[in-house]
Amino acid sequence: MRVGMVSKEYPPEVYGGAGVHVEFLVRELRKKMTVDVHCFGAQRQEMGVFSYEPDEGFEMANPAIQTFDVDLEIASRLNNVDLIHTHTWYANLAGVIAGKLNEIPHIVTAHSLEPMRPWKAEQLRGGYRLSSWAEEQAYQSAAAVIAVSEGMKTDILTAYPFVDPELVHVIHNGIDSAMYRPVLLNDTLTRYHLDPDRPIVIFVGRITRQKGVTHLLAAAEHFSPGIQLVLCAGAPDTPEIAEQVEEGIVALRRNRADVVWIEEMLPREELIPLISQASVFVCPSIYEPLGIVNLEAMACGTAVVASDVGGIPEVVEDGVTGTLVHYGVGDPDPESETEAIIDEAEAIAQFEQGLADAINFLAANPEVAQTMGKAGRKHVVDNFSWNRIATQTADLYKSVLGK
Predict the structure, then answer these.
(1) 135, 218, 293, 344: which has the fewest Cβ within 10 Å?
(2) pTM higher than 0.70
(3) Same fold, 2-174+385-401 and 186-383
(4) Per-residue pLDDT of the chain (403 residues; tens, 9 = 90+)
(5) Reading across the β-sheet that carries 259-262, which strands appear in turn?
(6) Which of 64, 7, 16 has the alpha carbon at shortest distance from 41?
């Protein structure tokens, strides 16, 4: 079997969970079959990896147009595979076109959904309508859809009710628990002027509305004295949200000295020790199909405080491997006799206070955090290995191809 794997991200150009997913999935699938990777960006040296950049003359075009230009070139190369597998809207159109042109089955993995991310219009502007259109085409024609969580499956069937539920298969993200493991190197803390004898709370993620960074900054105003906050946060979606986060950090530092902002993407050999030595890993996302960062933190033996959105509750066991905090925006108002929803500002304030309360509790009770961390590592080792995920994916390929 020969598979054409299409993704915007592939090492070394990885900035999000979808890229991490493709990296490790390809590694495991190649033990079972031939996998060609078609990705965006500079040329890679890895055998079987083909890279593409927008053609000359597209430098000033909307990012969605640049994406479609790359997709067309990739589609022209996908004529010698048995099956096409695409990841995110950036790659979907290549799969749609090549699949129809060559009568090759096209499988889509849903890492996120454009209808669930209206804030992407801030980044893509009119291109958001094009990204949404490209994604919809993929779901209309896909031979199968992989959802990375049960929550994502529900979202797919809500956003695209024309999709046959029988075609949607839940296959979670995975984790390399040999790579992501507890690593205790105090020189990493020293490099960032962190005190190992005081609680450390760490966030890792892109600066986008989806990741809830601004809510974390508001919650941090209520952290107990002595808590150190580390923000591994970069790659902002827009200059506006970059400015908003920067202003929030400046305001927070007026009252708290222990705020470390690491804007560059750290290599794993530096990031893993930071996560391992944190008291709490925090994931304040307002939309998260699964949250691979939580798997990474749990594999490092760190307790997690996370919102209860999307697929996160399928990873973080509330009260066992961490604490889930309810994100109540859009909830019905229990005190209303009509169908009114709870006031958004009130729901957000409750969420931010809930994050602070959960973090303060674990920071004050390190033995509880350590117990959760150990339980979290066992949970991911037992249930989220990449070998298991690759086997499930390969079985789906065979099913689609009738083998």
Answers:
(1) 344
(2) yes
(3) yes
(4) 999 999 999 999 988 889 999 999 999 999 999 999 999 999 999 999 999 999 999 988 999 999 999 999 999 999 999 999 999 999 999 999 999 999 999 999 999 899 988 877 887 889 999 999 999 999 999 999 999 999 999 999 999 999 999 999 999 999 999 999 999 887 889 999 999 999 999 999 989 888 999 999 999 999 999 999 999 998 888 888 999 999 999 999 998 889 999 998 889 999 999 999 999 999 999 999 888 999 999 999 999 999 999 999 999 999 999 999 999 887 787 766 565 677 888 999 999 999 999 999 999 999 999 999 999 999 999 999 999 999 999 999 999 999 7
(5) 259-262, 228-234, 200-206, 280-283, 303-307, 322-325
(6) 7
What topology is assigned to 186-383 in CATH?
Answer: Rossmann fold (3.40.50)
The residue ranges of every structural domain in the chain are 2-174+385-401, 186-383
SS3 labels along 170-221 = ECCCCECCCCCCCCCCHHHHHHCCCCCCCCEEEEEEECCHHHCHHHHHHHHC
What are residue 202's DSSP bridge partners? 230, 281
CA distance 107 to 336: 44
Angle at 109 between CA 104 and CA 115, to 5 degrees: 115
Verify cis geometry, omega within 30 degrees of 0, for the bond prior to 267: no
Tokens of 124: 């893509």
The structural architecture, per CATH, of the domain 2-174+385-401 is 3-Layer(aba) Sandwich (3.40)
